[in-house]
Amino acid sequence: QVRLVESGGDLVQAGGSLELSCTASGIIFNINGMAWYRQAPGKERELVGSITSAGATNYAESVKGRFAITRDSTKKTMYLKMNSLKPEDTAVYYCHAIIYGTGYWGQGTQVTVSS
Known about the structure:
The chain is mainly beta.
């Protein structure tokens, strides 16, 4: 059974930094694309950024230059390094992965940025 588990969410002051992790468990030999999404209260879930199996990344305009996605295939883990955090970054952050053609979601981790 494949599971994605996020961790690292916290309360942080504006201007601060935080790093989230997403680790896949189960019998997995290959993970294709991975991505981070977020959902703020009262808003739709939105794409934060993505990373391919080759390491190519893509980001939403709102986080470009502040957030960075990396992955360690040996650990089946994806990371989201967030710098210069703003109150509008407050949301539940979810990871998503395509594994053997099927999409999986994590349970989410709360990030709260205080002003």
